[in-house]
Write a structure and sequence with these properties.
Bound molecules: adenosine-3',5'-cyclic-monophosphate
Order of helices and strands: EHHEHHEHHEH
Radius of gyration: 14 Å
Structural class: alpha+beta
Helix content: 40-55%
Strand content: 15-25%
């Protein structure tokens, strides 16, 4: 069993498609083992995306992530990291395969509906960033 962090971003929360996105995870065999709806602070978003600090899109990314509430989740299942990435589709919704979350619900590379961890090390760090162990069950 593997765990990964998923964030439903402010654009998808504003569109009220949280349930539809979670259904896709569950239909693919992933289980939500921790979940919280929250408003990120600038400090939260800046730290979470610190790896992108030097990238030209960092400031816009942080602004977007604090523009409204998000839903953060831990997904668990066999091959959860890769499965989640497959379900999300490409980062830019214009490149996302039909039927993926980003193809169906995202509008732009910034407002791209969901975030998912990109590997085991990142998954462990990102899960620990949001959830103490006792909240993962
Ligand atoms: P996410 O998977 O949350 O990881 C970093 C985010 O930065 C990414 O999704 C995009 O929403 C955003 N972003 C904006 N511009 C770019 C870019 N050129 N390349 C990668 N990510 C970008």
């Amino acid at each position: 069993m593997e765990q990964t962090l998923s964030i439903i971003k402010p654009d998808a929360v504003a569109k009220n498609v949280v349930g539809r996105i979670i259904t896709r995870f569950e239909d693919a065999g992933l289980c939500v083992v921790a979940m919280r709806r929250m408003q990120l602070s600038e400090k939260d978003a800046g730290e979470f995306y610190a790896v992108h600090r030097a990238r030209p899109f960092y400031k816009d990314l942080v602004s977007f992530m604090i523009s409204g509430p998000v839903v953060v989740m831990v997904l668990q299942g066999a091959g959860a990291i890769a499965k989640n990435r497959e379900l999300m589709g490409a980062t830019n919704p214009r490149d996302a395969a039909p039927g993926t979350i980003r193809a169906d619900f995202a509008d732009s590379i910034d407002a791209n509906a969901v975030h998912g961890s990109d590997g085991p090390e990142t998954a462990a760090q990102e899960i620990a960033f949001f959830f103490p162990r006792r909240e993962i069950n």
